[in-house]
Amino acid sequence: MSILPIYNCFHPILKIKTEPVKEINDDIKNLIADMFETMDNTGNGVGLAANQVGKSLSIFVINVSELEEYPDITPFACINPEILEYSNDTITISEGCLSSPELYQDIERPNSIKIKYYDHEMNEIVKTFDGFLARVLQHEYDHLQGILFFEKLSNFKQTLIKNKLNKIKNSKYDIDYNMINYNGTLKKSTWDKIDE
Ligand code: ZN
Q1: What φ, ψ does residue 86 adopt, rounded to 5°?
Q2: How high is the pLDDT of residue 1?
Q3: How far apart (Å, rounded) are the C-alpha atoms in residues 60 and 21?
Q4: What is the CA radius of gyration of the chain?
Q5: Which CATH superfamily is domain 6-80+88-108+137-195 in?
Q6: Within 13 Å and on the Cβ side, how many CA atoms surround 133?
Q7: Residues 14 and 148: beta-carbon distance below 8 Å
Q8: Less Cβ around it within 10 Å: N or C end of the chain?
Q9: Which helix or strand (DSSP H or E) is residue 173 part of?
Q10: What pLDDT was estimated at residue 195?
């Protein structure tokens, strides 16, 4: 297994809709294992999409086991997910993203969703989620469609965070994981630099 660099939200791969997975082979199994390891290495990630590690495939991984609300939810992968239903009631929660460090914004989304996906053994699963977990799944699902969370903000609010977004685009932030900049170069973890 290996820890992969995470792609900056301004890298073009994060704006492309991902391709469905056709079969679970060793490459896919290894990718999923690497995604879990990469997410856990960030220290605060609860979800990670495959295009965030440079693979344009319809897969995301979730780990909410550190949160006290979800003691029974073990880390899981969602392959080729499809959101079947969104609730009419909405909830506003502050969101962040491993691809856009130091940016947190209140985002309104449906409170619950019904989602169909395939697990790591290609078993079809249909489940309803609500609250924070439904939120994480919607954020990751959007990644697979090429949509970033701050694009959910009104045009006016996006204007207000323009400076923050420019800083992210120009890699002006400290992080403790490696990132691929928007132009494909590598920004090393701040901690690696301290060790050097
Ligand atoms: Zn994200």
Answers
A1: -115, 140
A2: 85
A3: 11
A4: 16
A5: Peptide deformylase (3.90.45.10)
A6: 22
A7: yes
A8: C
A9: none
A10: 52
Joined tokens for residue 181: 């900049």
* pLDDT one-digit tens code per residue, 69-125: 898 899 999 999 999 999 999 999 999 999 999 999 999 999 999 999 999 999 999
Q: Report the C-alpha gap between 67 and 46 in whole angstroms.
A: 9
How far is ligand 1, taken at its centre, from the CA of residue 149, in Å? Answer: 7
Span from the CA of 171 to the centroid of ligand 1 (angstroms): 16
Residue 164: other Cβ atoms inside 10 A: 17
Q: What are phi and psi of 63, to 5 degrees?
A: -140, 100
140 is catalytic: yes
- Distance (angstroms) between ligand 1 centre and the Cα of 141 equals 9
DSSP 12-58: GGGGSPPBPP----HHHHHHHHHHHHHHHHHSS-SEEEGGGGT--BS
- C-alpha–C-alpha distance, residues 57 and 30, integer Å: 13
Rounded distance between C-alpha atoms, residue 33 and residue 77, angstroms: 10
Q: Tell me if 64 sits within 8 A of 70, measured CB to CB.
A: yes
Give the Cα separation of 132 and 111 in Å (integer): 8
Question: Residue 146 burial by CB count (10 A; 0-12/13-18/19+): exposed, middle or buried?
Answer: middle
In contact, 7 and 99? CB cutoff 8 Å: yes
Q: What's the 98 CA to ligand 1 centre distance in angstroms?
A: 6
Question: Which of these is catalytic: 23, 66, 121, 140?
Answer: 140
**Segment (H or E) for 92:** strand 90-97
